Amino acid sequence: MRGPSPAGRGRGKRAGFERAWGEGSMAGRALLRLCPLLLRQDRRGSAYEGFVTAQGRDFHIRILLPSDFQLKNARIQCSWQLKRLLHGYRQILKQRLQHCSDLVSFMEELKTILEVALKNTEDLHTPPPPEYYSHLIRDIETLGWNKIVYVDTGLSSVKLKAEDSRGRQHLITLKLNAKYPAEPPDCFVDFPVQFAVSWIPQSSLIDIYSQFLAALESLKEFWDAMDEIDEKTWVLEPENPTRSATMRRIAIGNNVSINLEVDPRHPAMLPECFFLGADHVVNPLKIKLNNNMHLWNPEVHLLQNLKEVLEIEFPSRVVLEKSDFSMDCGICYAYRLDGTVPDQVCDDPRCGQPFHQACLYEWLQSLPSSRQSFNVIFGECPYCNKVRKYFRKRIFEQNTALEDRKISPTLFPSLSMTRKLKVGQTNFCGRFYACFSSGIEI
Amino acid sequence: MQRASRLKRELILLTTEPPPGITCWQNESRADDLRAQILGGEGTPYEKGIFNLEVTVPERYPFEPPKICFLTPIYHPNIDSAGRICLDVLKLPPKGAWRPSLNISTLLTSIQLLMTEPNPDDPLMADISSEYKYNKPLFLRNAKEWTEKYASQQKSASETLSEEVNQTEASTPKKSAISQKRKGSDTSIREKKSRLDS
């Protein structure tokens, strides 16, 4: 299939070009070597037609040079296959046309691009053979559809679920390639140990699944031990342990904790452990661990062993009420401060951090980057200072303010705060007095 | 005034939700003197090490940053032989980047990060810094050696016992010379001794 016929361009003959591109010329020979199937169509050498070869495939192409033989104005007509292949490479091709000095170097570039394009398209667009699907569906049917948690639209990724004998749920993700079942799928599991699948071309999903179940059973004891720890002690770290996590940091008392590294293959043995905390608490624990090490009984659960060897009871989790934190001042971390409540709020809605006026003022006035002008202090929010925010601090003349606005004395801060500010205020203007209350507009 | 309420809340948070690999507690019920421990990160030369730090909370906290320094000797481009740390968040603006939105927990996490990613372009220890830049294998070897020597908790209980007995014994002059630079000299001596005992 050919593109539209070339539009006739200028007919001016150029002797120089003719010399360079003549049949016997160097460039002509180079082109012939590079693309033996691309032939000159006219005497002037302004049209070439033929085939360009890449990865053993020939693609029909026609190149039309303008009258001045400038490559950058050349027209290239391709067969539809070539067009499709080069679809994503238009920009690169244009760029190459601009930069190449002659047709030979451009053809070289075109071949390189074509090779890349061919490689990429094959990877992306070649669907697996029909047998792949029928085989996979047959496998899944044998396995049972109820084991499937997820299948992607291309049927190349499958998630299977399984339950071990203790009722724990586990997942395995299989990434199948087009050569399945000749080649094994990639398996992803949440295990503390490696999960290697043994695979022969006759294997199927069922084999993987049974290997998965066997591996689950072999790790049963380890997860039992970890589950007991997670359930009965206060695990500080990791926050939401995955099934593959072998480490636990458990609270023993105030600011004292023990770090355990459990061997998934031998969960009943004494784990690798060390203590964190002040020496006077940690040292006695170390002594106990050392002296009672012989009491460790592999027949008994890990947690029970730890309790006996360390002669302690592990405290249970202390849950903090987090809900009220958001109301507190971002600087003093309290809600009430000398009878005041946080009334300054960052006006960026994404931040919205509240502050006590006193806290914010004290921070901003200590910064060289803050500016004070009469009754307002401008500065950055300590929480979201990337967005330049300005905070307003109301400071105004004492007399007029008191008389004009009839402020109730309770709105004023404590004496100590006033004193502090009086020291600060001389920096900018001796006549002004700081007032800390929310309801006053200047 | 703000310090009291802030410290109270921070200490509760540090106890209930300590950052990964970090502990921090009040030293003998003095409000302004805290102790902290940072676990050496995996894949760093400080792995398996437990580093003790001293956190001093100034009167004007949180308007001023707490003073934090290492008690355990550490081989690091940004931490000097007295345990002082070169880190912007530990200094007040305009030179530093301290803000009241930070707290002890985030500072300790920053220090933990600094241990993982030293900043050789802003060095405190010029020799270690150039070593880090131009001879990484040697730096890693040295840092690992120091970790094993000073920060390793492989001292077991019997060693702890014997060290209490041996506490009056004089350590070798070289050791004491090193440890005298530190405020936490007693810990390092003890750790060294326990290694001898084992």
From TrEMBL, chain A:
- Supply the name of the protein: E3 ubiquitin-protein ligase FANCL
Q: Which residues form the RING-type domain?
A: 329-385
Keywords from the named record = Cytoplasm, DNA damage, DNA repair, Metal-binding, Nucleus, Transferase, Ubl conjugation, Ubl conjugation pathway, Zinc, Zinc-finger
Q: Which CDD domains match?
A: DRWD-C_FANCL, DRWD-N_FANCL, ELF_FANCL, RING-CH-C4HC3_FANCL
PANTHER family hit by this protein: E3 UBIQUITIN-PROTEIN LIGASE FANCL (PTHR13206:SF0), UBIQUITIN LIGASE PROTEIN PHF9 FANCONI ANEMIA GROUP L PROTEIN (PTHR13206)
Provide the gene name from the record. Answer: FANCL
What the entry lists under Gene3D superfamilies is as follows: RWD domain-like, Ubiquitin Conjugating Enzyme, Zinc/RING finger domain, C3HC4 (zinc finger)
Q: Tell me, which GO biological process terms does this entry list? A: gamete generation; interstrand cross-link repair; protein monoubiquitination; regulation of cell population proliferation
GO CC terms in record: chromatin; cytoplasm; Fanconi anaemia nuclear complex; nuclear body; nuclear envelope
What GO molecular function terms would the record report?
Answer: ubiquitin protein ligase activity; ubiquitin protein ligase binding; zinc ion binding
Q: Which organism is it from?
A: Crocodylus porosus (Saltwater crocodile)
The catalytic activity, as recorded, is: S-ubiquitinyl-[E2 ubiquitin-conjugating enzyme]-L-cysteine + [acceptor protein]-L-lysine = [E2 ubiquitin-conjugating enzyme]-L-cysteine + N(6)-ubiquitinyl-[acceptor protein]-L-lysine
Q: State the top-level EC class.
A: transferase
Q: Name one Pfam family in it.
A: FANCL_d3
Instruction: Give the Enzyme Commission number.
Output: 2.3.2.27
UniProtKB/TrEMBL annotation, chain B:
Q: Which CDD domains match?
A: UBCc_UBE2T (cd23805)
The molecular function GO annotations come to: ATP binding; chromatin binding; ubiquitin conjugating enzyme activity; ubiquitin protein ligase binding
Q: Where does the record place the UBC core domain?
A: 2-152
Regions of biased composition (Basic and acidic residues) lie at 183-198
Q: Name one GO biological process term.
A: protein K6-linked ubiquitination
User: Per the record, what is one GO cellular component?
Assistant: nucleolus
Q: What's the Enzyme Commission number for this chain?
A: 2.3.2.23
Stored SUPFAM superfamilies:
UBC-like
Per UniProt, what is one Pfam family of this protein? UQ_con
The Polar residues compositionally biased stretches are 152-179
Write the record's keywords in alphabetical order, separated by commas. Answer: ATP-binding, Nucleotide-binding, Transferase, Ubl conjugation pathway
Keyword flag DNA-binding: no
tRNA processing: present as a keyword of the record? Answer: no
Under the heading InterPro entries, the entry gives:
UBC, UBQ-conjugating_AS, UBQ-conjugating_enzyme/RWD
Residues of the active site: 86
Where are the annotated segments for Disordered? 152-198
Similarity comment? Belongs to the ubiquitin-conjugating enzyme family.
- Entry-linked PANTHER family: UBIQUITIN-CONJUGATING ENZYME E2
User: Per its record, how is this protein called by name?
Assistant: Ubiquitin-conjugating enzyme E2 T
Q: What is the lineage of its organism?
A: Eukaryota, Metazoa, Chordata, Craniata, Vertebrata
